[in-house]
Write a structure and sequence with these properties.
Helices cover 71% and strands 0% of the residues. With 218 residues, the protein is an all-alpha fold. It has two domains: 49 residues, Homeodomain-like (Arc Repressor Mutant, subunit A), CATH 1.10.10.60; 152 residues. It comes from Bhargavaea ullalensis.
Length: 218
């Protein structure tokens, strides 16, 4: 890699890590371009040479802060003895972490990121390849997928191949489980729940299990 490219990557990381620090100290809603630039030791104009939108900075910083989720999802899935069980465990891990850190998951999976959001996920792992070191090869493709509707498809495809899920029900299971999670997450983010986060997680996972049980049995 040429010196200029190395310098650009180094600068890019300065801004991402500065954003991480602000999130940890003040919360993701307090992140601004000026704060990040000041924390990194540069001006706002320099920052805009590397990031076209504030949402992109939040996305990359949130990804840094979700490393615990990436580590856990491999552990959860490895406990499953069949593709369908692995799919359920993947959801269990996703719900556990997302309801614990809803703002971070919103920044990564729900926030409007403008054009080509899938490119941001690829860019992240190109910049932080160490985050994938302990992730099994069969799981890695789903981690590069930002669209929640597509993340679980590979595991569901394997469940169909194993005869655990009717092929005709694959799309319904995928869409229904994702819509349940998105709906509950929106309620959490907008303070529209009449119960606590732990209950929200438990109910979401209960609905997801029910959908899978009914549709897998058809």
């Amino acid at each position: 890699m040429k010196n200029k490219q190395l310098q650009m990557r180094r600068m890019w990381k300065y801004f991402v890590e500065a954003t991480v620090e602000i999130i940890e100290e003040e919360g993701i809603d307090k992140v601004t371009i000026r704060k990040v630039a000041d924390r990194a030791g540069y001006n706002s104009a320099t920052l805009y040479n590397y990031f076209s939108e504030l949402s992109h900075l939040k996305f990359f910083a949130a990804m840094r802060l979700l490393r615990g989720y990436v580590e856990d999802v491999s552990l959860f899935i490895n406990k499953g003895e069949s593709p369908l069980e692995q799919y359920i465990l993947a959801w269990e891990c996703f719900c556990r972490h997302s309801f614990k850190s809803p703002e971070l998951f919103y920044a990564v999976f729900m926030m409007d990121l403008g054009d080509q959001p899938e490119r941001l996920m690829q860019r992240y792992y190109e910049s932080y390849p160490a985050d994938l070191l302990d992730v099994p090869a069969e799981i890695q493709p789903s981690l590069f997928e930002r669209n929640v509707m597509k993340r679980g498809i590979s595991l569901l495809d394997r469940a169909v191949a194993a005869g655990q899920v009717p092929k005709a029900n694959l799309t319904a299971i995928n869409e229904m489980t994702n819509l349940v999670w998105q709906g509950m997450m929106a309620a959490v983010l907008n303070n529209r729940l009449e119960y606590d986060i732990a209950t929200a997680e438990k109910r979401t996972m209960g609905y997801i299990r029910e959908i899978i049980r009914e549709r897998a049995a058809d």
